[in-house]
Design brief:
By secondary structure, this protein is an alpha/beta fold. It is built from 4 helices and 5 strands, in the order E-E-E-H-E-H-E-H-H. It has a 5-stranded mixed beta sheet with strand order 3-2-1-4-5, with helices on both faces. Helix 3 crosses helix 4. The longest helix is centred in the C-terminal third of the chain and has 23 residues. The radius of gyration is 14 Å and the shape is globular.
Length: about 140
């Protein structure tokens, strides 16, 4: 069962996708959009879901370190509702604390330039989000 992972930023959406077995998440792409214009993302996400035959949609929820919901989490929850209404399917929330830090650290260790990191960090963070979900929900 294929899943897609989404890391929603203010101007970027990082996307990861799993293999058909639902074991391994891989970076897919980053979509750049106008700041706060989340409606611009609905059709591109739907196109990817249809093209890749995705069953599960996993959206990173940026909780505060004390487990509360701040302004970014509230925006994410609003986007989740829009996406559910648009796609007609449930969106799974996955805690994304530390995923961007993990992604940046990995890219720094790979000696990637700051400019290249900026283009890759969101889809890598989405990969961490999706892999976390896959690991927790592995059957058997």
């Amino acid at each position: 069962m294929k899943s897609i992972g989404l890391d929603l930023g203010t101007k970027t959406l990082g996307i990861a996708i799993s293999d058909k077995t639902g074991l391994i998440a891989s970076s897919y792409k980053t979509i750049f959009f106008n700041e706060g214009e989340y409606d611009e993302l609905l059709n591109p996400i739907k196109d990817i879901i249809e093209k890749e035959e995705v069953e599960n949609v996993v959206l990173g929820l940026p909780k505060n370190m004390n487990n509360t919901l701040g302004p970014r989490a509230i925006e994410t929850l609003e986007f989740k509702q829009k996406l559910e209404d648009f796609l007609g399917k449930n969106i799974i929330l996955e805690d994304e604390r530390w995923t961007t830090v993990q992604a940046n650290n990995l890219l720094i260790k790979a000696d990637m330039s700051r400019k290249k990191r900026k283009k890759s960090v969101d889809k890598l963070a989405a990969t961490f989000i999706l892999q976390s979900y896959l690991d927790k929900n592995r059957k058997g």
